[in-house]
C-alpha cells in the first residue's frame, strides 16, 4: 500500500496539535510568532513554534523549528538554527524533520548535549497523550547495589511445612522464589521492589519487603524436587541506588509493524563515571501500555544492574 504524503501545512498543523497534547501543564505553545533579535542584527525573527515554560523571570523558552520537504538540511543550515536560538534568547532548540537526519547533524547534537533535540516525526505518526514529550529532558537509569541483606524470614504456610525437602541445603541467600509467575532470587526481589528518590544522584535506602502486602502469592521453590511451597517472606536490606541521567539527543516517532503501532526510539548520551555512555531506548505499545527496552551501545552500563527507567520532565 502506497504511503500517503501530506502537505507541509497539514504536517505542521498535526505537529502543533501533537505538541499541545504532550507538553507539561506548566508550559504553553505559540506558533508563527516573531521574537526580538537580541543581537540587534534585525528587529524580529520569525519562529515556527515556541514553547514557554514557567513564568518570568524564570521562564524557559524552547524554540521548535520544522523542516519541510523542500528545504535543504545540512550542517550549515543546522548551525544557522543554533545561532537563531541564541539570538532570540531561547534556552533549548528542537529541530523536527520529516526525513532522517544526516549523521553529521546527529553527532553535533550529541556534542551540544541537552540544549539541542532532534526529532524525526513520521507523516503517519499517531498522536497519543501518554507518549514521551518533545521536551523530555533526559532518561534516568537507576542502578542498584545491595550493600548487605540484614535479615530474611521465611514462614511456610500451613499445609506446606511437611512437604519441604530436608535435603535441600541451599542457604537462605541462595533460595529461589516464585512471585506472579516469575522465578526470583533474594537479590531479584530487592532490585524489583526497592524504590529510589530521584532528587539524589546517589543515595542509600533501607529496604523492607513484606510479602503479605503483595497481591500475588509467593512460593518457595525446592531446588531438588522443584516443587513450590506457599510461604510468607520478609526481607530487610541496605541498598545503594545511583540515578544515571543521560540527556536525550535524538528522538524518532514512526509507525512500525502491521498493526500501525507507534514506536518511539530515543538516543541519549552523557558522561558517567568518567566515560562516555550512550544508549538507545525503544518504546513500543503493548496492551495499551508503552514498554521501554534499553540497549547499551557503549557497554559502560552492562554490569551496572540496571532495572528500571524514568523519563525526567523539564
Structure write-up:
- Helix content is 15%, strand content 48%.
- The chain is mainly β and 314 residues long.
- The protein folds into 2 domains: 8-139 and 247-313, Trna Endonuclease, Chain: A, domain 1 (3-Layer(aba) Sandwich), CATH 3.40.1350; 140-243, no CATH class.
- Strand 11 and strand 12 form a beta hairpin.
- The longest helix has 15 residues, at 8-22.
- Low-confidence spans: 307-314
The CATH architecture assignment of the largest domain turns out to be 3-Layer(aba) Sandwich
Mean pLDDT equals 76
Number of helices: 4
Tell me the fraction of residues in β-strands, as a range: over 45%
Q: Count all strands and give the number.
A: 15
Instruction: Using the alpha-carbon principal axes, give the shape.
Output: elongated
Report the major sheet. Answer: 15 strands, mixed
Round the Cα radius of gyration to an integer and report it. 25 Å
Q: Would you list the SSEs in sequence order as H and E? A: HEEEHEHEEEEHEEEEEEE
Structural class by secondary-structure content:
mainly beta
In total, the number of domains comes to 2
Q: What top-tier CATH class of the largest domain fits best?
A: Alpha Beta
Distance between termini?
40 Å
